């Protein structure tokens, strides 16, 4: 049986960085860089529908990361987005999640850790670091405006069960096994959760769960290197 690799795209206007990162990733049998681009506008003209993960820079001369995320949101792509930027600030995290990023990382990250984050995002749909969880804890409060049309009381018991397990970074299959339901049913519950809460991705569901006290931030399972 042929080994299925995680298909990755890299968009960054530093050509040397793109080449070096591609060479490093391609050495691992679990990953394959199938698309590279040195600008957002160029990337948006490419056929990127088969990508599992997009590694995206924020500031680029010919189409920045925010423009790319905005366009991909309109296309309703299944590609997970990892924003990797030298302009990383923890205070930007909320905007990144709102724009559709599934992880937000500094370019100073160790390459081995980056590969592990890619696998985590591919497996669970999102990644939060310890310091980012701290930011969530400090920023979320009852004074924040609601960004959805449904309250936690309007979610079904099964949807709440699925939401809690999403926050624990379980995969669809693991959630299905835990709740004794089919993976297809889990995906249906995830879709319903995103419709009801008005979020765009799994990271948004975690924010919703914390903001609405569906789960305590201390219960969120963090990535363990």
* SS summary, helix count: 10
pLDDT average, as an integer?
A: 83
Give the strand tally. 5
As a whole number of angstroms, the C-alpha radius of gyration is 17 Å
What structural class should be given to the helix and strand makeup? alpha/beta
Overall shape: it is globular
Strand order within the widest sheet? 2-1-3-4-5
Alpha carbon gap, first and last residue: 29 Å
Helix content: 40-55%
* Strand residue percentage: 5-15%
**Sheet with the most strands, sense and barrel status:** 5 strands, parallel
Order of helices and strands: EHEHEHEHEHHHHHH
Q: Which stretches are poorly predicted, pLDDT < 50 over at least 5 residues?
A: 141-150
How would you describe what is shown here?
- The chain is an alpha/beta fold.
- Helix content is 46%, strand content 12%.
- The chain has ten helices and five strands.
- A five-stranded parallel sheet has the order 2-1-3-4-5, with helices on both faces.
- α4 (93-99) links the parallel β4 and β5 (103-106).
- α8 (172-179) crosses α9.
- GO terms for molecular function: DNA binding.
- Residues 148-213 form the HTH luxR-type domain.
- The modification 4-aspartylphosphate is found at residue 57.
